[in-house]
Predict the 3D structure of the following.
Amino acid sequence: MTSTSTMLSLASAPPTASLSVHENLKGRLKLGGGSLSFNKEKANPFINTKSFSRISMVAAVKISRFEGVTMAPPDPILGVSEAFKADNDEKKLNLGVGAYRTEELQPYVLNVVKKAENLMVERGENKEYLPIEGLAAFNKATAELLFGASNPVIKEQRVATVQGLSGTGSLRLAAAMIERYFPGAKVLISSPTWGNHKNIFNDARVPWSEYRYYDPKTVGLDFDGMIADIKAAPEGSFVLLHGCAHNPTGIDPTPEQWEKIADVIQEKNHIPFFDVAYQGFASGSLDADAGSVRLFAARGMELLVAQSYSKNLGLYAERIGAINVVCTSADAAARVKSQLKRLARPMYSNPPIHGAKIVANVVGDPTLFNEWKAEMEMMAGRIKNVRQKLYDSLTAKDKSGKDWSFILKQIGMFSFTGLNKAQSDNMTNKWHVYMTKDGRISLAGLSLAKCEYLADAIIDSFHNVS
Ligand code: PGU
């Protein structure tokens, strides 16, 4: 009997706790990992005794209806932050989650966000429900930021934009749409990718497979492997692409390679599905980082794009993002949007307003917009400085002759160090450096002052742990 079926049988028991235990005692009762069998007449001490009701009540208190629920493992990324909090060593460093920190390693609220929030207070804005598709001013701003306001897809109203619960929720909504309207269609995801992609498609019951992406030999892109795998996939598959700053590798295709990727996707009638979680964070330029998406849109292709404002506006906990579906006609876009709303309604009804207003205020106000761009450049610049200092420290300290220059070729928040699981464990257990077990470190959580310490940890883990 599986845990699930146990839960189902428990759940279908009558609502009175003592009765449900009695009923279940007639057969096999599963307790966590094992199961007990009872013979109603002989073995069961609860039955046929005078004190039946008193004992069964005691048993009811002890045996949870959720006995069949097993403990889930900690999340490979967010679980790292929990472990970090529990460590009391003052040298500890959290390079797990991709969250920007100042040079003092403190969380950062952008000045433009504070200004936008002040505006909201001054205007006395209310907290009424948003429509299912979200805040109209946000949806307009987010699509224009992504495609450019003068892009034909915007002018011709060919984009269905729905506000989502940040990047994750937007991806999940798109996955629900794929499951409903493209049953059996496969999503191709890069190997490796952000760990939650697999969870999202699994939960939505959308089949997925991987395409080659990272080549450990060159510590670069396996472009030929990627093209071959996209070509080999069944016609009409969805191809999940990281718009910029690929997570976890920090390796992006060149503009020429993006053209070739678009060629093969078009050839195979696949549907590109972009995850844009770092617009403005990779290069410091919002436009440059949207280049891949715009290149596909310019070819007249239909595509999906999930957006997030967690990183570029530091709105992690506001859960603000969007799903955009570019269609070949305004009519198709209107129908797609109506169905996205239909999928959203039973899941969370309508999205939260606060982050949407912040984005709309920042993007919609030329002064705030320019201030945002400057702050984003500052954040991207700090990450680049830390990247350079880490490379310099590794090169100066490591006498083995190992070439660490791959670190400088990677972009965005992360560096994919090439450390394996055992080496990553050593980073945490010995050096108190918290990171994901795939060897990824978030440079956004590193300061210039800590680069040398980190370099010592990496060199020790790399050379002394196999
Ligand atoms: N897509 C990619 C490629 C991401 O890296 C992330 C965040 C998201 C989407 C979703 O972010 P939202 O906050 O839902 O907009 N990845 C970070 C954050 C931690 C996490 O795993 O959620 C990371 O550290 O990889």
